Amino acid sequence: MTSKKVIELFYDVVSPYSWLGFEVMCRYRTVWNVEVKLRPAFLGGVMHGSDNRPPGVVPNKFMYMTKDLHRLAKYYDVPLRPPSDPFEAMFKKGSLSAMRFVAAVQEREKDGDRQVEHVSRELWRRIWNEDKDITEPASLSEAAKKAGLSDSEIKEVLELSTSKEIKDKLKSATQYALDLGAFGFPMLVCHVDGKPEMFFGSDRFELIANCIEIRVYEQEVIVVPILLLASFLVTLVFILLLRFCPEKVDRMRPKASKSTTRRVLHGIDAPPGLNVLEHESIALDMPSSYSTFQPPNTYSSKALSVSTLSLPPNPPKQPFKPSFTPIVQPRELPRQRLPESFNLVTPLPAAFSLHSDSSVSLYRARMENRNVVLRVLNDSAGATERHSFLGFASFLAQLGPHPFLPELLGVVSLRAPLVTVMEEMENRDLLSFLWRCRQEHVDPPCEMTERRMYTMATQVASALEFLHGKDLLHGNIRARSVLVSKGFTAKLWGLHGVYTRKNQGATWKEDLSMKKWQAPEVLTKRPVSQSSDVWSFGVLLYEMASLGEAPFAEISVNELLQFHQRGKSLKKPTNCSNSLYSIIKGCCHWKDQDRPSLAEVSRKLLSGEKSASDKVLKASGTVNIEQYLQEAGYGEANSYTVF
């Protein structure tokens, strides 16, 4: 196993360009798999020792720096704002006491630079964002406290920072930088084959990558020609089939829908073939009790009685009849005693999804004076699909009850058609619910308040924490995976991927439509963890606050990873409070170890719920489905360049 390559970063918190270089290297070290060693030093000593002049004292350089820093801060998403009097902050007050303080933190922290990193960042924030002092002990203590140091640690560091040991340590670091050729900061030194290579400035990262043999663009150079060649070959094969085997081409074409009318969902003109719950099952608002009964040995699955009221075109008029022999019951599958017939069976109205080839059909029905949803496996399903259908039902049963997870009411498993029965969630999926909340005078009434948003988010977090407690990762957290009851209870769904990964050994699904919700480690196919679900939960909060806008709408899928690498965040929705936005940004940290735990997120949501208002959230206009699909990343090419 090869050791990590080392990059030394020399910096001073009085230097704004050092802050930019510092943040970029902190982001790149994981992607490049390098060890970044922080070298706090005194910029004033370097300028004096190299006989250099500060660029700010040259009028034309000062004017350029003002514009340049603004551009770079926006590009790298670093909250850099010059102080009201830069000359006083940089030249009169200086940074000697601050850098001695940082050196003392480093001296005290023997294992790594984590505290040094946090303290340095907070000092930069004070001078280059909040226009505050960094020279007085009280100022240094406040920055250290924000960085996570305890009162006793701060007292110890303050005492240490005035010692001769630390003064000599800072002098030594400054002289070391001069010996390597420093004349300003930031200075980065790459160690290649035992030799130091020095780079100055916050805009030399491509050259640094080349120096340490990080291949930045090679993937794109290889992948693009291959994709073009593959596209040409597929087109050529299709043309040849069309010329010599037209009957095979006809079989390859999707069969036309029986209904040619476009379906309208909640006032939105939906393209054909969109159905939110296909491949997803259904969810319900159900007490947590589980009553299971053993069915009689001579169970009779009679006709599902169909009502002719309010049916869409081509309703099922014939009773369901067995078409294959009974299937062996999965182990521990609860089998409730179901009625011999379901009344008022009608196809479930369409909602949002891209799947049209599902082997499962959904129906709304009445069972024992309650509304239920039937997931009916089509007669054309093969043995593998039948096994998966019953296996998923068994998985739901073994998962156990939870107030904010769907509850399985029963299974018809001894005769065809195979049916799982769930209670109906009247408000369907959260995404279409949020879209309806954008409209006026809808039936049933639909209003989203800040308090309700916090409540529903807390419910989803509770369900997700329940899954994590069973060592299960969800992997598909988004508004489409949450279902809403008539009483506005939110329940987490989209569990089929959890089942396939746990019981069938499937890997994480490569799906373009999921990438806008996936954490960076998922996009780069690195190991995932519970923090990966936390990232997606943060994106879900954005969807709720924006009433169903696509996340990262302005960023294409093939630019998404670079966007994350620059440390950029989701834009703040109009309806989003500062406290909720801070939770969203916390969940969507680039480094998974910097994201909060679900328990911590839940505590913040509960706290926010107490102070939230009951004012109805508003958003302009309805959602255009085609535009949403484009902004959400459907159909885009998957081509990443990893910096």
From TrEMBL:
Keyword Transferase: yes
GO BP terms in the entry: glutathione metabolic process
TM ranges: 222-245
Record bears the keyword Membrane: yes
Catalytic activities: RX + glutathione = an S-substituted glutathione + a halide anion + H(+)
Alphabetical list of SUPFAM superfamilies matching this protein: Protein kinase-like (PK-like), Thioredoxin-like
Protein kinase domain residues: 348-606
Keywords: Kinase, Membrane, Transferase, Transmembrane, Transmembrane helix
Pfam families named among the record's database cross-references: DSBA (PF01323), PK_Tyr_Ser-Thr (PF07714)
EC number: 2.5.1.18
InterPro entries: DSBA-like_thioredoxin_dom, GST_Kappa/NadH, GSTK, Kinase-like_dom_sf, Prot_kinase_dom, Ser-Thr/Tyr_kinase_cat_dom, Thioredoxin-like_sf
Entry protein name: Glutathione S-transferase kappa 1
Gene Ontology molecular function, alphabetical: ATP binding; glutathione peroxidase activity; glutathione transferase activity; protein kinase activity
GO cellular component: mitochondrion; peroxisome
Family (UniProt): Belongs to the GST superfamily. Kappa family.
